[in-house]
Structures are given as C-alpha cells and as structure tokens.
Amino acid sequence: MSSGQSNKKVNELLTKFIKALDLKVIIGGVESVEHFNSLSEAEYDSIQGYYVSKPLTMNELTIFMNENR
User: Fold this and answer.
1) Between 44 and which of 13, 25, 34, 53 could a Cys-Cys bridge form, CB atoms 3.0 to 4.6 Å apart?
2) Secondary structure element (H or E) that encloses residue 6, with its range
C-alpha cells in the first residue's frame, strides 16, 4: 500500500469515527484546485483554506457576506 493510499484510508476511518460521534468534519488547509478536487470522495461538512478565501477581518467578512447573498 502506498503512503497516499494509506493516508486516504486513515482519513476515511477518522471521518467515519468523527461522524459516528455526531461531530462535524472540517477540512483545513485547502490551498489549490487540485487539493479541492482530491476531496471529491471525502465526507466532510465544510472546508477552509486559501482556495476558499484568504483570512478575512470581521469587516471584510461582513462585506463579503453582504455581496454574496
């Protein structure tokens, strides 16, 4: 088993465990379209990282939310 396959299996097991505890799965550090696309089979509730948005101040977040309703 390659390290990539091993990592994928560990992630799948952790996700199942977290979901069994009725907790949310948040994937952090998503920084590229390639990374985002690699998550297509993952069960997650949300993602965060530079691919989604750079860090925002509260004021920037308010403006972003108002512009994207």
Assistant:
1) 25
2) helix 3-20
Residue 30: give the domain boundaries.
Answer: 3-67
| Residue 68 vs residues 1, 47, 49, 60, 64: alpha-carbon distances, Å | 44, 18, 18, 12, 6
Residue among 63, 38, 41, 68 at smallest CA distance from 51: 38
Count how many domains the chain has. 1
pLDDT in tens, 1-19: 677 788 888 988 999 999 9
Q: Is the separation of the CB atoms in 22 and 42 below 8 Å?
A: no
Nearest to 28 by CA among 60, 2, 3, 53: 53
